[in-house]
Amino acid sequence: MINLRGIAAFLTLLGAAVPSHAAGATIGVVAPQNGTLALLGAQIAAGAGFEIQQSGNTLVAINETCEENSGAAIADALINAKVQVAIGFLCSETLEGALPKLKDANIPAITVSVRSRILMEDALKNGWPLFRAAPADGAEAAKIIEIILKDWAADPIALIEDGTIHGRELTEAVRNALEQNGLKPVFTDTYRPGQEQQIALVRRLKRAGATRVFIGGDRNDVAVIARDAKAENIPLSILGGDAMRAADQPLPLITGVRAVALPEYTVRPESAAAADALRAKGIEPEGYVLPSLAAALIAGQAAEAAAAASKPLQEMLLGTTFQTPIGTMAFTGAHELSQNPYRLLEWRGNGFFPPAAPTQ
Question: Which InterPro entries match (predicted)?
Answer without folding.
Answer: Leu-bd, Peripla_BP_I
